[in-house]
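Summary for the lay section of the report: proteins are chains of building blocks that fold into shapes. Here we show the chain for tRNA uridine(34) hydroxylase and then a coded description of the shape we predicted for it.
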Amino acid sequence: MSFSVAALYQFAALPDAAELRAPLRALCESLGIRGTLILAVEGINGTVAGTDTAIAALIGEITKGALFGGRLDALELKYSRAESMPFKRLKVHFKKEIVTMGVPQADPRRAVGSYVAPADWNALITQPDVTVIDTRNSFEVAMGTFEGAVDPGTTTFGEFPDYVRQNLDPAQHKKVAMFCTGGIRCEKATSYLLSQGFEEVFHLQGGILKYLETVPEKESLWRGHCFVFDERVALGHGLTECSEDVQRPDVK
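The coded shape description reads as follows.
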């Protein structure tokens, strides 16, 4: 038996996010779903796994059901498969942010960079005047990244603003393209750069996962594996499991 794995997020106004935690957890438990979901007043984020029927029921409730009242009808979704259940338990958290940067002016609900479809990503990042930045943590970058991408050397996403202040200049870096696993970190990263005066800011729509899913390996500029925070450890082209080929990093 294999499992459906859904990586999801959406920035949306959820002022009642704290009250939504208990019913969302109860729904997941009733469906036998495991994984992690994070709620905040700025939206939802997470990766969960379950049977095909269970995941379909959860996504249907999130996007069309009464629980969220249609506020998450633009949910960013990526699906993959797992040969065994990739999560040990279910976690549903309420936090200040659905992806923690700690910078109030980085608000994707107000402004984000230009989305670039996976099919158009290669053409953008091979332009000589484009600075390509991997917004993930160093241990993720070490496992795999795009050719020519800059590793900011961060251990947490909260360090990214410091990297920008110390290494990037709107007058010098005219075009900046960023990417991350599923797209959510780049929503905040591009929003932050825009708030700092950068004008041409791009990010890979759907993240590395969508790129690996849709771009043929023979045309790919991705090198290595894409780390995922579950028992599969990493995914490759076509979102195939790579856990037998890679060693799990020491993630705190």
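Put simply, here is one thing we learned. Residues 73 and 118 are 22 Å apart (CA to CA).
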